[in-house]
């Protein structure tokens, strides 16, 4: 994918990643901490994580195309380098979302909310799921921030004047 309506696809697809990664991270953490939330969301949690996972290589692929069509400099190379590191975080979000969904689904299928309340809340598996979810969610969100910041710097370096040109509306 290269252009959409004459615009580089990357600058459009990046908005999916910027919204979906933090949204998936938040949903994962809430569902890991509160199994009832995971039961309410059901299959939506892993589906959201899957869409997030798929959006990352689409965006980086479009970014690689764009990288070949702009002047290369250290900022562009740094942005591309950082962008390549997001896929493992998105994969982690997906794996954990699927695991939380599967465990809470099995708990609900056992026919007892007590299983969710008693065994799931006391289980070392839940503690591990919560800790891993927090770590992966934080890592993914921080990585998206770092990638976005580097992309903005690459795109806007020397691209604007710090003083008004006088040609626009002064209000």
TrEMBL record:
InterPro entries: DUF2231_TM
Family annotation (Pfam families): DUF2231
Membrane-traversing stretches: 12-33, 45-66, 86-104, 125-147
Domain DUF2231 per the UniProt entry, residue ranges: 6-160
Keywords: Membrane, Transmembrane, Transmembrane helix
Tree of life domain: Bacteria
Protein name: DUF2231 domain-containing protein
């Amino acid at each position: 994918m290269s252009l959409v309506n004459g615009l580089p696809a990357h600058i459009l697809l990046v908005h999916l990643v910027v919204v979906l990664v933090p949204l998936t991270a938040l949903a994962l953490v809430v569902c890991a901490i509160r199994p009832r939330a995971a039961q309410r969301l059901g299959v939506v949690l892993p589906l959201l994580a899957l869409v997030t996972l798929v959006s990352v290589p689409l965006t980086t692929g479009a970014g690689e195309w764009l990288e070949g069509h702009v002047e290369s400099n250290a900022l562009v190379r740094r942005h591309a380098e950082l962008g390549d590191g997001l896929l493992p975080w998105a994969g982690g979000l997906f794996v954990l979302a699927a695991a939380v969904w599967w465990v809470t689904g099995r708990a609900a299928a056992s026919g007892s909310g007590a299983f969710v309340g008693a065994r799931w809340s006391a289980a070392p598996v839940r503690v591990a799921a919560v800790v891993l979810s927090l770590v992966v969610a934080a890592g993914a969100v921080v990585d998206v921030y770092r990638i976005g910041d580097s992309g903005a710097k690459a795109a806007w370096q020397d691209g604007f004047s710090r003083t008004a040109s006088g040609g626009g509306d002064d209000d």
